């Protein structure tokens, strides 16, 4: 059970916001905030306004979501081709 990272918010987080501060963090260093539907834009904009690299991902919750199942088919390289 994850809750929103926004101060004072106790809602269940539905998104994860990955970001870093290039001035103090190396490329491999990554910070993650969790955000509910209401605050995901607020938090992302907060980071973007500081010119931080920001990436927002949907958080896999235990909620049964039937209409939202998308798999990135071309995200993995096809290694079954053994020619040459
Ligand atoms: Zn929130």
Task: Give an overview in words.
It contains one helix and three strands. The model has no long low-confidence stretch (mean pLDDT 82). It has one helix at residues 40-48, and strands spanning 15-19, 31-35, 54-58. It starts with 14 loop residues before the first strand and ends in a 26-residue tail after the last strand. It has 84 residues and is an alpha+beta fold. It has a three-stranded antiparallel beta sheet, with helices on one face. The chain is globular and about 30 Å long. The site of zinc ion has 8 residues, from loops. Zinc ion binds at residues 4, 6, 9, 11, 35-36, 38-39. Residues 61-84 are annotated as: Disordered. This is Acetone carboxylase. It comes from Lysinibacter cavernae.
Shape: globular
Bound molecules: zinc ion
Specify the number of helices.
1
* Assembly category: single chain
Topology, number of strands = 3
Weakly predicted, low-confidence segments: none
Derived structural class: alpha+beta
Distance between the termini: 49 Å
| Major sheet attributes | 3 strands, antiparallel
| SSE ordering | EEHE
Strand content: 15-25%
Instruction: Give the domain tally.
Output: 1
Widest β-sheet, arrangement of strands: 2-1-3
Radius of gyration, Cα only, in angstroms? 17 Å
Protein name: Acetone carboxylase
Brief write-up:
The protein contains 1 helix and 3 strands; from the N terminus they run E-E-H-E. With 84 residues, it is an alpha+beta fold.
